[in-house]
Amino acid sequence: MTVGKLKLKPGQEVNANKSDKRVKKGDSEISVTMTCNSSEQELVEHEPKPREEFATADTVVVAVEVLEELTEEEKADRHRLELKIERAFYEAGCALRELRERRLYRSTHRTFEEYCRDRFNYSRDTAYLKIAAAVVYDNIQKFLPTIGRQTPMPTNERQLRDLAKANFEPELQAAAWLQGIEEAGGKVPSGRIIKGIVEQLKDKPLLLASDFCQIGDVFTLTRLEGTERKYNGCWAIAVALKEFSVEVDVHDTTLNVKPENLNKIDSPEVHRQLPQIKKRIKRLRDYGILDRCAYTVLESLGRQTYLTPVEEGLLEWLEKYYGVDS
Description:
Blueprint: E1 2-8, E2 13-15, E3 22-24, E4 30-36, H1 38-45, H2 52-55, H3 72-86, H4 88-101, H5 112-120, H6 124-143, H7 161-166, H8 170-183, H9 191-203, H10 209-212, E5 218-221, E6 235-241, E7 246-249, E8 254-257, E9 262-264, H11 268-285, H12 292-301, H13 309-321
């Protein structure tokens, strides 16, 4: 009889002794001590190896995501818990403020700063920023107009940090938050968005859209950035007013811009002509796929506040060609 060691590959089985017991390990290679005679050892040592192609065969794994509907009770619980998470920073700031104002630290510490450092490992700046963020949150709740709509509220301290440092009046803090919501597309704005608004307010106060213009006013666009840069110099017609921004129609889409991006056109003739030009261009674009030359002409007309005889002739020719005569 010979005693030896045999390495088993994943999933491999072996007869370990004369009884019919088997050893199997499906997830990793293991070593087992076994007892066998010389003929059995020879059979094990000369066991044929699996062909390589089986070892290298491709395996496709498909992930299936299964969603499950919540009951009404579960939906209510989820909403309640989410609110707790979102308000955690606010509750912390309020608690710190009360500890400071009532001097509830005085039995163990001489100063509030020492107490925060020893008890919470907060630096002085960290503790006071948390308090300031809670104050800003209160101001937003108090001064933000919410009639007839749900306004997204701050969900973490970072979103309010720059507003807290800026020392704006409460009404202006609420206005800045609302501007952030508009820039975030109706969602909770990031700290980066709020920081940009704070920097802008330090240079130039926010201007209410209703104080700047009314629906139907016409402008040329300026100082647009990013993907909207291509519309600089185009005419625009105000179609909706928000608190601090204006929705305008241009020749091929609708944009949401700030008053600072609009140069007002006071000409009565332009006020009369542009809505008709926009209507004619839209009718052509709604026709369907146009020739590339047609798109070039329409884009050019989107930059003209009035039409020359040649431009009017080109527009009329396109309307006749595509059967959308005005």
